[in-house]
Specification:
With 193 residues, this protein is α/β, with parallel strands linked by helices. The chain has a domain at 11-111. Helices cover 37% and strands 10% of the residues. The protein is built from 8 helices and 7 strands. The protein has helices at residues 3-8, 12-18, 45-52, 63-73, 81-100, 126-137, 153-156, 164-167, and strands at residues 23-27, 38-42, 61-62, 78-79, 112-113, 141-142, 149-150. The protein has a 3-stranded mixed β-sheet. The protein has a two-stranded parallel sheet with strand order 3-5. A hairpin with a 6-residue loop joins β6 and β7 (149-150). α2 crosses α5 and α3 (45-52) packs across α5. The protein starts with a helix and ends in a 26-residue tail after the last helix.
Length: 193
């Protein structure tokens, strides 16, 4: 490899920290089964990192729950599954780089599992490392078949709270219920009047 090629190689930490900010794209037509029309969030590695750092020891976060949480944070219909996988790997590799440099409190990426509880082979160290780390966290795994899985995903599941501005957002007030004739009731109008 030439020295010019070496100088353009970016670390996972740089990829995580220098990635574009999250944004929502409006898809008017489907771009495939995983990309239906609607408001699709393209998240960011830093945003995934922020959620993953909050996963408590002894708990797991499914990819579906992660994507759903991110979408709710941005009032999107769903989060792009492709970029979520790419960004998860960047977060994992950055955490390993930080851990190798002696940094404490890195993102516990091994606590993210597939929706059915199976472990993720695309993370650093593969399923063997993830299984070891989850066992150290006290998560019970089944080792049946090719890929280990969390014994009871619902039992070990962690549901992240909303982040940032979305955390303080209140749900929109419910529309007034109609009166007996089916006419919309005015705010403050007593039932039956």
């Amino acid at each position: 490899m030439t020295s010019a090629a070496k100088s353009t190689t970016r670390s996972a930490i740089e990829k995580r920290d220098d990635a574009p900010r999250a944004h929502v794209e409006e898809l008017t037509v489907a771009k495939g089964a995983s990309f239906p029309p609607g408001r699709m969030l393209i998240s960011s590695p830093l945003e995934l990192d922020a959620v993953i750092r909050r996963i408590p020891e002894g708990r797991v976060l499914t990819v579906g729950e992660l994507r759903g949480n991110l979408a709710r944070n941005h009032r999107a219909d769903y989060t792009c599954p492709l970029t979520t996988g790419i960004f998860l790997r960047i977060v994992a590799e950055a955490a390993d780089e930080e851990r190798a440099a002696g940094k404490q409190g890195t993102a516990p990426y091994w606590r993210v599992v597939h929706d059915d509880g199976t472990l993720m082979d695309k993370l650093p160290g593969g399923v063997a490392k993830q299984a070891r780390r989850l066992a150290e966290d006290g998560v019970v795994l089944f080792h049946l078949g090719k890929v280990p899985r969390v014994s009871d995903v619902d039992h070990y599941a962690w549901h992240p709270p909303l982040l940032g501005k979305a955390a303080g957002r209140r749900p929109a007030p419910a529309p007034p219920k109609p009166d007996r004739r089916g006419q919309p009731r005015k705010r403050g109008q007593a039932p039956g009047s």
